[in-house]
Design goal:
The chain is an alpha/beta fold. It is built from eleven helices and twelve strands. α1 crosses α2, α3 packs across α5 and α7 crosses α8.
Amino acid sequence: MKPPITTSSAATPPIAVTMGDPSGIGPEITVKAYADPRRRPPIVVIGDPDVLARACRITGTELTVRPVDSVAEAAHSAGVMDVLTEGTLPEDLPLGVVDARAGAASFHYVRRGVELALSGEIRALTTAPINKEALRLAGLPYPGHTEILAELSGTSDYAMMMANDELRIVLVTVHQSLRTALDALTTTRELEIIRLTHRTLRAGGRTGLRPRIAVAALNPHAGENGLFGREDLDIIEPAVRAAQREGIDASGPWPADTVFMRARAGEFDAVVAQYHDQGLIPVKYLGLEHGVNITIGLPFVRTSVDHGTAFDLAGQGTADHTSLLTALHQADDLAGDGSGAAPAGSPAGTAVAAGLRPAPTDV
């Protein structure tokens, strides 16, 4: 039976957490993060109460799962997880298996989260991992969270930033094959990403008015003046020069085998990387548990974990929830004490990524 409704007494809107693909580790890390005494912000979960109750049993997490119909009904009581129910799943939904039903459900959780963020009912959105193959099986033509969030919020100028306390990496191309990513590189797109990175870092207030942005080269040794390909000369360098003429402190293209090390040492505030693995390997090498995925350019704050659905761990109760906890804390910091939404079309309320602080040492 559904518990009595209690109106939330939270002074500010909560952060919403989507539980991710129900067949993966998302529900397990969600309940662990919710129950963790180090969690700071009040949150509501968007997902399936029965799946989350199962996750509590699997992980040994002592929580009462309480379905609610709206954010206003969330009580934020100790030991009670307020869950916005979005659809129902069969009791026999398997764990650790790609399933179209799970893919569809994970999309609905994100859609509900976007609606709540745009209406101002929540001040930020934090997402547990979804599975791209499950989305495809459900007939949903999205390669990942970033594209879903952009379409549902009507955002055209956006990018993925992966960050920890040592690196901030913004990607020019994201979830596509390497061959098509190369074809997608244009001077116009490069310049758009440099501009967006500049605006986002400035909004954070910790890098000053002229954040230092390094642009990674595509080819080895930045192409060696065309000996190893002309993309760096013909596509990337013109974008960097155009950004400089606009007063942006951009430089490059720098050889990718050293630019991330230089940024980690403090020479740059962020690095623009050309494709997915070029930018994400350095961040993930430093530790998945402290990496945060931030979508910059959205009209609301959105953070996410720096890992996937880990079907091989689903159902074991051993999945580490540290990345989700870190993402929650980053969302809390970025959203501030008011509404997390920025004016439509403004990147200022999104990842104030320049304000990223080191993850707590005990997280």
